[in-house]
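User: Hello! I'm new to structural biology and keep hearing that structure can be predicted from sequence alone. Could you demonstrate with Ribose import permease protein RbsC? Please show me the input and the output so I can see what each looks like.

Assistant: Of course. The first part below is the input, the amino acid sequence of Ribose import permease protein RbsC. The second part is the output, the predicted structure written as tokens.
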Amino acid sequence: MNKELPGWVDYGLLPLLNLMTAFIVAGLVVLAIGENPLEAVGHIAYGAFGYGNGVGYTLFYTTNFIFTGLAVAVAFHASQFNIGGEGQAYLGGLGVGLACLGLDHVLPWWGILPFAIAMGALFGAIWAAIPGYLFAKRGAHVVITTIMFNFISYSLMNYLINNFLKVPGNASVQSRTFEQTAWMPKLEWLSGMFPGIQTSPANLSFVLALVACVFVYILIWRTKFGYEVRVYGANPTAARYAGISTTRIVVLTMAISGALAGLMGMNPVMGDQNRIFLDIPQQAGFVGIAVALMGRSHPLWIVFAALLFGMLYQGGAELAFEMPSITRDMVVVIQGLVILFAGAMEFMFRPWIAGLFTMMEKSDA
């Protein structure tokens, strides 16, 4: 049933119902192993928001998920399923790292930042535009090509670091540490509200992620290009008859999507580790899919969905520490349940709610 639902239902009630269902099922799992679900929820909440360092880690993870969620959402609007956020974040992190390695001796962080943003976005955009072009010109399915590009990007990063970027004599697969002048500032200005947040990896990338949300909103809903993207996403055939270049839409949309995923690399590379290392995405590319689904591909709700998953990641670590019977694998199960129900949003409660609205309209008539 594809009945149009009010915005408060589509963006509020449906995600809330799915989230509540996920936590109820997760609570039953916790109960089945002999632990108190309410106590588990308390540990998650405290680990995520109970002290400054925990808040910082929550915002750090949230930043990653905002960027990758936006990347998936932009592609969704053009009816493309960009599942290659992991690979694009790898390449974006490489671009950010190269900018820092090349300029950390001559410029401060604020002088390096524009170059890091440009190179991170460019590397990610190129890596996503190739699958977009292959789809537009050769019909190669975006899901297949972007998945394969994830594996290629990992192997490419491994090769580049080991053969060109690694410090001689160092067994770790990583570049040299950037000069401190190239380090992204921490969120120390929040230490008055959250004492201890300055000891966490949370950094200025969080603010840049919020700026990216504003950019995506303006791009998709306030520009001619965004209108063309939405028309193509709704009906590619109608878009062709309207004179819209479908090749241009697909390639550019995928490039923008990849650029956003690439910018995720700023957070761990320039804001935390301050070096190029191998596991830059840390599964954020795949979590971004659930974030975009739960956020209904809208930047505002993506922020809240990303915050939820940031809370689960940081709070889950606290939960595994405080309740040893709930292992880290069990925490992953809880996170997976949220992803499962977020992905099933269209097929669980929507038909029932749409039917209820139809009955109400008939009774009013």
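User: So the tokens describe the shape?

Assistant: Right, they're a compact way of writing down the 3D structure. Reading them back into a model, for example: The first helix runs from residue 7 to 32.
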